[in-house]
Specification:
Two copies of one chain form a homodimer. With about 220 residues, the first copy, chain A, is an all-alpha fold. Chain A folds into two domains: about 55 residues, Arc Repressor Mutant, subunit A (Orthogonal Bundle); about 160 residues, Tetracycline Repressor, domain 2 (Orthogonal Bundle). Chain A is built from ten helices and no strands. In chain A, helix 4 packs antiparallel against helix 5 and helix 9 packs across helix 10. Chain A is elongated, with a radius of gyration of 20 Å. In chain A, about 45% of the residues are buried. Chains A and B meet through helix 7, helix 8 and helix 9 of A and helix 7, helix 8 and helix 9 of B. Chain A binds a DNA duplex (30 and 30 nucleotides) through helix 1 and helix 3. Chains A, B: It comes from Bradyrhizobium retamae. Chains A, B: This is TetR family transcriptional regulator. Chains A, B: One of its GO terms (molecular function) is transcription cis-regulatory region binding.
Chain lengths: ~220, ~220
DNA sequence: ATCAGCCGTGAATAGTTGTTCACTTCTTCG
DNA sequence: CGAAGAAGTGAACAACTATTCACGGCTGAT
């Protein structure tokens, strides 16, 4: 063999792969999943359509990786926020607020990742994505239950319900319109966080306190 | 003119139209929205593919009417259940339970109506459907707030969040598996109803009582 | 009975995109 | 430099279905 992959080439290949994924992500953030078609993504990544297939076996695989990537980022953010909280209830509040802020700051992308119709089958990766996030929330609920802050309950079902509430009310088709206004955005985040905390059994008065504390650090994340 | 539509013909045309819609509904209930293709629906309705287009200008229109029809039924059931309740809080509990029971008893259809990817654009009719149901729930929350049973809140946002929670936890991809078992089904309905009531501010103890009362009549609706 | 006009038909059409592949260009190493 | 092989290209292909439409049969008034 007179040709071997040199380190430089390996790096270039990895960079190109990332560029294609990034192009897909940007496209989805702008125009939703429907806009993520091979040809436009290829153009955006400065490659030919055929090149995309050197890196991803199919469009389904490309989108699956996109979903996985976004999901990873989301999960990391949730963990970071929750781990920084002083107690289990605060951690849960922080986790919920983080999800709310995240989906609001990238609404089209979130909608695409979560629910937008896609012409290829991405159900397994969407399922995995939901499972990860839901599992994390469930763990936080469980911690609060074990600490005696919440009544015993089916934490997995509760976590799923909370995420459904957040997504539907913030990025679903009935989501309020003017969420670009920072004040309205904060109100919406507070409102849904309050709903979520009460849903799992936090007393109204205590929930209101937790919400206020959770929203302060989360606001800083909006830019991230 | 030597031909005019006689009453008999008008009736036959209406019947055929209904048959096509019913075929579409059955198909969706069995195989989801993806299975609702013109050719299979036509076969099921005992007509040719072209005939479908004598009754519906496009597939999008057919599915839109399907969504509207299911939505109408759902709304009627919610109103019936809520109006039969003794007070505003019971009415809200009944409404929530009704939604839960309905989506569970026709999970594939519900998923198709609500969120399943469709190749044609049905966003407007889905939006209308959600608006109707959400509006009804919002009205019930509002009634409970005005009766002093709940704290003041953004009822529209709360209603949307509740529906999101119900749908995601009961028909979403993370919904529990063995909901065919009646006991498990009842547990799931009770759990999510409890979550929903607490979310809007019903005290835990009181919410548990409302749930029990609401689930009794709702169980009878499962067959409907 | 008969004919005008509507209803029903289903094979053919058309438009959309993911995917392929023969060919070109680039990279590595003797 | 030149050969070997990998990466990149993009036009052509394939598959899937909604939609069309020219034709045959049915319905209803005369």
């Amino acid at each position: 063999m007179v040709y071997r992959r040199t380190h430089q080439v390996v790096k270039r290949l990895a960079a190109r792969r990332s560029a294609i994924l990034a192009a897909a992500r940007d496209t989805a953030a702008e125009g939703g999943m429907a806009a993520v078609q091979i040809a436009p993504v290829a153009v955006r990544a400065n490659v030919a359509a055929g090149t995309v297939y050197r890196y991803f076996p199919s469009k389904a695989e490309l989108i699956s990786e996109l979903i996985a990537e976004v999901s990873r980022d989301e999960l990391a953010a949730i963990r970071r926020a929750a781990d920084a909280a002083p107690g289990p209830s605060s951690a849960l509040a922080a986790a919920v607020t983080t999800v709310a802020v995240h989906v609001l700051s990238q609404r089209k992308l979130a909608w695409g990742i979560l629910a937008e119709p896609v012409d290829v089958d991405v159900s397994v990766s969407r399922l995995a994505s939901r499972r990860e996030i839901s599992g994390e929330i469930a763990a936080r609920i469980d911690a609060a239950v074990r600490a005696g802050h919440l009544p015993a309950q089916d934490t997995a079902l509760a976590a799923t319900a909370l995420l459904g509430a957040l997504h539907e009310s913030l990025v679903g088709p009935l989501a309020p319109e003017n969420l670009d206004d920072p004040a309205k955005l904060r109100d919406a985040v507070q409102t849904v966080t309050l709903l979520a905390l009460r849903a799992v059994g936090v007393m109204d008065a205590r929930a209101r306190g937790l919400v206020v504390q959770a929203v302060l650090p989360a606001k800083a994340l909006v830019g991230a």
